[in-house]
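Entry for the shared binder. Reason: the reviewer on the internal report wants the predicted structure included alongside the sequence.
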Amino acid sequence: MRSILLILGLTGIFSVLCSCTKKDCDCTFYNAAGEEVPSYSGLKEEMRVNDCSELNTSDTTGYFICK
């Protein structure tokens, strides 16, 4: 009985730790002219970042803004 409770407890702790490090980030892509491109925009699920803004990128074709 103790081993079952121990396993359940460890599983619960592990699942809480994993869920804290993953986030869903809503990212929008804008072209070089600053117009939103819906086909590249969308939800990035279970990203391992502290803040979605870490996913912001920029290059010559456009840029991502993530929240």
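Summary line for the report: Residues 3 and 9 are 10 Å apart (CA to CA).
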